[in-house]
Amino acid sequence: MLDFQITRTDSGSAARTGQLTTTHGVIDTPVFMPVGTQATVKAMTPGMLAEVGADIILSNTYHLYLRPGADLVEKAGGLHSFMNWPRSILTDSGGFQVFSLKGLRKISDEGVVFHSHIDGSRHFLTPEIVMDIEQKLGADIAMCFDECAPFPCSYEEAAQAVERTTLWATRCRESHHRADQALFGIVQGNVFEDLREKSAAEIVALDFPGYAIGGLSVGEPKQDMYRILDLTNNLLPQDKPRYLMGVGAPEDLLEGVKRGVDMFDCVLPTRIARHGTAFSHCGKVVVRNAGYAEDFTPLDPDCDCQVCKSYSRAYLRHLVKSEEILAHILLSYHNIYFLIKLMQDIRKAIADNTFAQFYNNFYENYRI
Amino acid sequence: MLDFQITRTDSGSAARTGQLTTTHGVIDTPVFMPVGTQATVKAMTPGMLAEVGADIILSNTYHLYLRPGADLVEKAGGLHSFMNWPRSILTDSGGFQVFSLKGLRKISDEGVVFHSHIDGSRHFLTPEIVMDIEQKLGADIAMCFDECAPFPCSYEEAAQAVERTTLWATRCRESHHRADQALFGIVQGNVFEDLREKSAAEIVALDFPGYAIGGLSVGEPKQDMYRILDLTNNLLPQDKPRYLMGVGAPEDLLEGVKRGVDMFDCVLPTRIARHGTAFSHCGKVVVRNAGYAEDFTPLDPDCDCQVCKSYSRAYLRHLVKSEEILAHILLSYHNIYFLIKLMQDIRKAIADNTFAQFYNNFYENYRI
Questions:
Q1: How far is it, in rounded angstroms, from Cα A309 to Cα A185?
Q2: In this complex, do B83 and A315 lie within 8 Å of one another by their Cβ atoms?
Q3: Taking a C-beta distance cutoff of 8 angstroms, is the pair A46, B300 a contact?
Q4: By C-alpha distance, which of A52, A32, A46, A49 is closest to A80?
């Protein structure tokens, strides 16, 4: 099941708020989904995720398929039960990961042969097999198996990926049967506008309950991403959720929302946390910097998360320099909170019809 | 300040329960103190520590002196404030760590010259300097700077360590002035009974509010440890807390309590957690074992901690094999809970006058 209701629309942009209802709960959109690649959001307990207000997380089919395997997760009662996460989950299709395995994979219309990054073992994924895996994992939202062309790539490569993505989306739709799980289509086309138009038309014709914009944030200039988002906004049905895959920088969330995006996911908050970097309302804070050695102020004075309420930059720097696990925990907690709170603030601004003002204020303070 | 009241004594052994009151709270004894070496108990937030029932933790003077430095911790308002831990803290003296730096140190009656394990820099610690550091750190309980002879060592080496420990204890006592911090003496003497008697007599004559038994659990056979504990029980005043340093295996906690010990600390629960091993009522569980791959039962069916209530062995094994930080978090949580709960159960058994029965039951289930 999946229900999506738009609650407010911004008068000056494509931004809108909505409510997405899945088998496991109601999600206010626009929403940021933390990534739990291997059935865990790195350095976070499910309790912490609930505390920072995560309503939905993403998990990676490619990783779970390889380890511990979809059959084991199914035996555990599905991903929610396996990882002790009672709220909503979305699984990607593994396409992006498989196509990122340079030199390790071989693609045909039938599917993809690739070698595991863990032990080199040989695997074959088809749209039908991926649907079987995602249905066993049992997330609330599953994604179609798609071909994501790299950036840069030729027009011909991008065109072939679009064709194959449509072919596979048709087969995914046919082999997906789980009533408690929604299947989203994915639009490809790289930075080529006519390919985006073709892909969107073909995928939308298959009538999915939601649509993802794939193949962005893969290395292209930001202006290309924004241009394609502007275009895609007009190609996707207004009444269905739109999901921009792999995007999580604060400014990109804001730019995405402005262009009509409802859902985002990214490893960025937890990845930069493990490298000792934190988001703040003024831009990124590199906690290791010597300048913070005796700085007893919070990470971000404008943040009201438990980390900012309880710990100083000096202590966090000590943890980072001492390579303590608690550094990963606390910075991941703050960074995920930061993005979730940003989305809350964005939703409030849209509801209050002050989104344009919010947008301008954001850039006044934030150094990219 | 420090107050210690014995509340119950076991009729069949030296075991007793008590209440230890520090500047930061009341601690039921016998107590296990988790170790927060670098001002953090590895992979645990202060909130988790409170949740598992930790009333007091230990932190290491040697590590904090080197990084971030005692002056910085003092500027932060002391260790409690720096690390956001409102309950009691004990700091060791750094003696054990410095004497473990084989080849990197030079000892005289004046003090110890050593080289930092972090950057090789040269440092000089004396009893006076250590007292200055511990008072700046501001724990509720500080330990005297002592010389811990290695095991095995000659009688002459052990005798010299005892002499120096008494000399340094006298100087520590003279240079310790913080009224809100209690200073404990440490008894040395290795496995030599007459040296233990001499050390205990000299240290007790200095009249400390509590006494530690040092130089055990350093590699000697368990029978030697138990023999020395039996002896020391009769050498230390009954009305003062006794602290067995560096001991944390479940069976050693039980054997220590039986011999009149009130306080314990050890890195064991968090260290074995990071290697994927968990305590259970049946003995250690090596979570990585293939036999647990599809085991959807809790880590320890007899444990009621949040980890055992919420996660399966199969999931924990997946986390361990995937080298996820959450494995460290959840296993550390469970292992610390396990030891704290064991001490709760021991206290209850002493109070109910069923300690002998508890002791026998423990060994019926537990494989060492």
A1: 41
A2: yes
A3: no
A4: A46
Q: How far, in Å, CA of B91 to CA of B40, rounded?
A: 13
The contacts of residue B266 (CB under 8 Å, 6+ apart) are: B32, B35, B217, B246, B247, B248, B249
Q: Which of A44, A293, A325 sits opposite B328 (nearest CB)?
A: A325
* Token pair 């007459």 in the structure block, residue: B194
Give yes or no for B297 touching A (CB within 8 A).
no
Complete DSSP assignment for B191-210? T-HHHHHHHHHHHHHT--S-
Nearest CB to A72; choose among B294, B311, B329: B294
Cβ atoms of residues B347 and A65 within 8 Å: no
pTM above 0.80, yes or no: yes
Interface test with B, best of A117, A305, A324 (most B CBs within 10 A): A324
When computed from its CA atoms, the radius of gyration of chain A, rounded to whole angstroms, is 20
Tell me which DSSP letter residue B3 carries: E
Is the CB of residue B92 less than 8 Å from the CB of residue B143?
Answer: yes
Going residue by residue through chain A (368 aa), what tens digit of pLDDT does each one get? 899 999 999 999 999 999 999 999 999 999 999 999 999 999 999 999 999 999 999 999 999 999 999 999 999 999 999 999 999 999 999 989 988 887 778 999 999 999 999 999 999 999 999 999 999 999 999 999 999 999 999 999 999 999 999 999 999 999 999 999 999 999 999 999 999 999 999 999 999 999 999 999 999 999 999 999 999 999 999 999 999 999 999 999 999 999 999 999 999 999 999 999 999 999 999 999 999 999 999 999 999 999 999 999 999 999 999 999 999 999 999 999 999 999 999 999 999 999 999 999 999 999 88
- Residue length, chain A? 368
Q: H or E element: which one contains A132? A: helix A127-137
Sheet with B25-29, edge to edge strand ranges: B3-9, B16-22, B25-29
* Cβ pair A261, A280 in contact under 8 A: no
B81-115 core/surface letters (b: 16 or more CB in 10 A; e: else): bbbbbebbbbbbbbbbbbbeeeeeeeeeeebbebe
Instruction: Identify which of A42, A76, A324 has the shortest CB distance to residue B324.
Output: A42
Chain B closest CA to A209's CA: distance in Å?
Answer: 31
The angle at the Cα of B125, spanning B121 to B128, to the nearest 5 degrees, equals 150
B231 touches chain A (CB under 8 A): no
Quick one: which of B262, B260, B275 has its CA closest to B332? B275
* Neighbouring C-beta atoms of residue A110, cutoff 10 Å: 12
Instruction: List, by residue number, the catalytic residues of B.
Output: 92, 265
Domains and CATH numbers, chain A: 3-266 (3.20.20.105), 276-332 (no CATH)
Tell me whether residue A28 is one of the annotated catalytic residues.
Answer: no
Give this complex's ipTM. 0.97
Residues in chain A with CB shorter than 8 Å from the CB of B76 are: 296, 312, 314-315
> Residue B41's closest chain A neighbor by CA?
A326
A293–B contact, CB cutoff 8 A:
yes
B315 interfacial to chain A (CB closer than 8 Å): yes
Beta-strand relationship, B141-143 and B122-125: unpaired
H/E segment holding residue A5: strand A3-9
Instruction: Inform me whether the C-beta atom of residue B361 falls under 8 Å from chain A C-beta atoms.
Output: no
